[in-house]
Structure formats: C-alpha cells, structure tokens
Amino acid sequence: MAKVGITELAIRDAHQSLHATRMTTADMLPICDKLDKVGYKYIEGWGGATYDSCIRFLNEDPWDRLRKLHAALPNNKIMMLLRAQNLLGYKHYADDVVEKFVATAAKNGIGCFRIFDACNDPRNMECATKAAKKSGVDVQMAISYAVTPFHTNEKYAELAKTYADFGADSICIKDMSGLLKPYDAFDLVQKIKAKVDLPIEIHSHATTGLSVATLLKAAEAGADWLDTAISSMSMGTSHSPTETVVEMLKGTDMDTGLDTKLLLEIAAYFREVRKHYSSLESAFLGADTRILLSQVPGGMLSNLESQLKQQNAGDKMDAVLAELPKVHKAAGYVPLVTPTSQIVGTQAVMNVLMGPYKVMTQDFRNLITGKFGKLPTDADPELVKEALKQNGMDKVMTCRPADEIPPEWDKMVEESKKAGGDGSDEDVLTYAMFPNVAPKFFAERSKGPVDAASTFAKKEVSTGSTAAGENKGASYTININGKAYDVTTGPAGDKMNVKVNGTSYDVSFAAPGSASSSAPAASSGAGAKVAAPVAGTLLRYAVAEGSDVQADTTVIIVESMKMELEIKAGAAGKVHFLAATGSQIAQGATLAEIQ
User: Fold this and answer.
1) Residue range 483-493, pLDDT digits in tens
2) Burial code of 89-103, b = ≥16 C-beta within 10 A, e = fewer?
3) What is the CA radius of gyration of the chain?
C-alpha cells in the first residue's frame, strides 16, 4: 500500500469550524515557512467562508491573502474549497462568472480546486470542473456525505464514477458533520476503488468523536490522502489532529513520512495564535453526539451559535437541533453542507422562533422548488406548493439551474465600478459574490485589516462604584462589525454618557422594539405596525414610500443569518417606512406602518 498523504486544514477549515472563520492573514504568514517544509499533499487555504469573513469582518482583501499565501508556500499547492455553481455565495451564478472566477483564482495561486455541490447534482459541477481543468491545476471532485434513507455507499460509488468521467483527478469524501463511521468508511472506500482508479481523500470532522477511527479504517481500505488539522486547531467541530494521525500510521505501510517534531513546533505557534480568537470559541469543544441526529456540519455549529445569540435566543440551541431533522426531511434529505446547511439551519431557527414555516426564507423556497438542483428525494409537497406560490412559479425546476441564468459578467463589471471597485477582475468577483457587503469593503479597504488580538480576544470588564455604592459604570471593549471599540459607560438610565475611544457622546436608549435611530421618518402612532421578525440588516424597500399595498405584499427585505427574508405588510393601506435601508435592526423593531 502506498504511503498516505496529509492535507493540512489549519488555515482554512479549522478556524472556520472553531472561530467562525476569523483568522487573519497576519496570523497565518509567520508560520508558513514551517508549513512549507512539512511535505503535505495540499494545504487548504482558501474558500468556504474565508472570502466572506475577509470582507465582512476583517477588512482584508481575500485575493491579497491568496497571493501572500502563494508566495509564502512555494513548495506546496494551496487547495481551495469551491461550491461549484455557487462559487462562494449562496446562489447559482452564470457560467461566464464561474469560468472567470476559477481562472482568476488559479492565476492568483490556487493549485487544487476541491469542487462540491450541496445537492450532489453533477450538472451543477460541470462548468466549474471544466474551467478548473482548463486552468491546468489539480481538480478534486467531492461527494457531500449524508446519512439518510436515500444515500447508500453504492450510490456514492456510482457518483464517483460520474466524477471520473467528468475528468476529476481525485475524489474526496466530504463528511462535513462527522457522520461517517469507521466501518462504513472502509466499505465506501473499497466500493469507490472498485469503480474508479483515482486517489481518494477523506475529509471528516471530529464533531461526533468518530473521525480518528474513521480515518484509520479509510486508510486501511486504501484511501490515499487524509484531511487533518494541527493539534492546537483540532477536535471539537474541527478535525482530527495531524500529529495523532501521523503517529498512528508511523511504521506501517501507510506511514505519512511527516516529521512530528516540526509538526509540534507548528502546533505551538497556533496554540498562541488561538488565544487571539478566544471570544469566538465555540462551546462545542468535545464530542457532541447530538449531531448524529441533527447532522449539522462543524462550520455551521459555531455560526448557528452566533446567529442565535444575535436573535437573543442563545438558549434555543437544543430546540433548533431538534427541529433540524424535521426541516431536513421536508427539504428532501439534501446533504447539509454550505449553502444547504445554512438554508436548512436558518429555516429551523425561523421555525423555532416564529412557528413552523410561518416564514419561509427565499433560499429555502428556492431549494425545495429545484433552483439549487435536483434533491435526493421529493420535498414536502405542501411546502413545495406554498413555495411555488410565493415564488410565482408554475412547477418545480428540473433543468440545470444555471441554464436559466443569462451571462452576467459584463453587468457585474459595471455594477462593481459603481459600488467602488477598482475595475480589476478580482474586485468584480468580490462584488459578484457579496454585492451587499462589497461596497462597504471597497470604501474602507484602505484602512487595512483589523488586529485579531485586540478585536477577538476576550476582554476583562472593570466596574467601579461610589462610596455610597452607586454604579459608576463600566469600561470594556466591544466588537462591532469586526472593529474593536474601547467603551466606558456612565450611570445607567434612560440617558447616559458613553465614552468611545476617548470621545464622549450623550446617548438615549429607546425601548425594545422601537424604530431604529436612523429611521427616515417618525411614527404617526396610527396604523398597522410592520415589525422585524428577527434581528439583522434592512437591505432594501420592496415598494416605494407611500405605495398602496395589500396585506400579503412584501414591503421590506431584511438580511439575517446570511439569508434574505421578506417582510410583508400584514394589512392593506399606504406604507410609511420608519427604518432606513442599511440600518441594523433589532427583533421586534417597528420598521414601517401601514396607514
């Protein structure tokens, strides 16, 4: 048996799973010289949520990160996780945008594309795969692993054969939730090996506690490469420790040949770096066997925690995990990996907060009506019927979804320039991926990246009191949209003085559920209120101010938990907006009145 290769995940999936993808490039570069000497098969360094986090929270250019990593790792191929026709967003893009993205990423330093589709629909992977092959880099096609009544090892093996026919250089079994059991892994690898003569890589999160044993049995069955994370960035929702796997296979015919001493030096570095992100640590640091039922991917868990806290519903995690299998079944047992994990997870949150399917997100409606691809089995027919109605569709889409999308690159070029982009292909792609976030990033990019330690490390809260015991307030650091602010508060009350970075402000606190302070107009006190069902950002108005609307008319679009939500009028009349577009809104805040 040939030696087993190792792909290191520390600078991509590990911190995505543990720290909501906040690791900065500045914390990656100092260790790259040692990473470059280890002898990894690949170093995963881009893709997933890293692009989004760079521009949304870190004020970093993701393309600049890629170029710097490429320069710092001359002896290694950088792997990118690519969501096929979704690229890095939550929707399908036109073929011309997919082709441009892949070519540009390869030019900037990607040495291997790991391409997957959340529905395991090969049609969605064809364009990205052809573009990657054309770029001349390695192409690995991934099977999104799920445990459902409709997924079998035989079907996965047939899918691997389809990938081989597409021209894949290798196959990845992508076990994003830690559901792949050791003996199932052994059987699956053997079945795939019987169908295709390609290297097989195993990607299995440690969330459920199965991963180390799973990697061992997969290697015994003939798996060629294994995904691991350096020990100080491993386990919990992350992956098996690199050093553990290296030592486990040492002296066998599966020996990785990697130097444990050098790996321990790398582990020591990341042990210190991890302290920079202490405020973001996931509560899921051990084995969480609830995931065997809910099937939530490791990267989704930390994000789900954060999202529930934003909704003042941090205590609802168990209820959401219990709701997830129900939503999963209703969505046709689609594998739970980005973006479907986010779509199904957010819908489960909505169901818990507001009642089952009282609100269906746009993306959930699109998923169950075929706009993301063919589902493993039919979605709940009653939900599909309602989703078709809300989407204005006559029937479920059965063609390749991208066939319905006209070329859009030229349009993106013009729109990105208007949004503040510099006209480069890289900026156009940044805008295309995240049009709601890119304009702010373009405007503030020159300020440079945030400092991780001052932004994401836990801060101590100091409070004082007068001789009479009266509260004098508190001094602490808060993080707002990725930026750290030193805040000192005065005595509590309806009004208080707040000192931010040395400047004093008089601040009035509105009652919970009141309109945002950035509202364009005052409430008349009459008419039906349009309230925010969740906390988030008011993206845009769906109708003009003063329009006559019906009770079921969508009047506002809100972004929450990375999904767009439609808010309806609730009554007939003239709409009068009370909150400004772009403003942060609290759950229950009055956004408009219908008079």
Assistant:
1) 444 454 544 44
2) bbbbbbbbbbbbbbe
3) 25
